[in-house]
Design goal:
- The protein has six helices and seven strands; from the N terminus they run αβαβαβαβαβαββ.
- It is α/β, with parallel strands linked by helices.
- It has a single domain, classed as Vaccinia Virus protein VP39 (Rossmann fold, 3-Layer(aba) Sandwich).
- Helix 5 links the parallel strand 4 and strand 5.
- The radius of gyration is 15 Å and the shape is globular.
């Protein structure tokens, strides 16, 4: 498995990735934002791509910001990693996505968008799928950050395990999986 150094967010993602028994398709909504690895920001695309390449799965990273995708493409090219980069809205992508998803990383902008993305992805998640939601710490009026709608939905729905784990500084990541997985 890829070493993450001091990047707590990457460590949680890679540990969560390892929870999936038969990993074939990985989708990330919200791509890399800065071109260097820091303890608290956006290098998840690179960590996931490197790990997934080792596992011979397919990795899709989707972002509405074309500049982020261009930067990701350059870094992935340097690492010689083959990843499917998609410019567009994450919810639209997931609504139309034809494959079963084994691992979903939601790192969009706010709770409503994250919930919409999850709802489109939900029927496409494999039985052993893991969903990670970044930035699930309390901020603003949101108790669970970006997961403020998904986490209560899954808790109320039942049949899901939701663990909100500290990742770096005040940041937290929600790790969601079916309770039967």
């Amino acid at each position: 498995m890829i070493k993450t150094g001091a990047n707590g967010k990457a460590r949680i993602l890679l540990e969560s990735l390892a929870l999936v028994s038969d990993l074939r398709v990985v989708v990330e909504i919200g791509s890399i934002r800065i071109p260097i690895d820091t303890a608290s920001d956006g290098y998840s695309t690179i960590y996931l791509a490197r790990a997934i390449e080792e596992l011979e799965a397919i990795f899709f990273t989707v972002d509405i910001n074309q500049a982020s995708l261009i930067m990701a493409a350059g870094i992935l090219l340097e690492w010689d990693i083959d990843t499917v980069l998609v410019h567009g809205d994450g919810a639209d992508f997931l609504r139309q996505f034809p494959l079963v998803i084994d691992f979903l990383h939601l790192d969009g902008s706010e709770p409503e968008t994250t919930f919409e993305q999850f709802k489109y992805a939900e029927p496409k998640l494999s039985p052993s799928a893991v969903v990670c939601i970044d930035d699930c710490h309390s901020y603003g009026d949101w108790e669970w950050g970006k997961g403020n709608k998904v986490i209560p939905y899954l808790q109320e729905k039942g049949g899901w395990s939701v663990v909100v784990q500290p990742s770096a500084f005040q940041y937290k990541t929600a790790i969601c999986r079916r309770a039967t997985a």
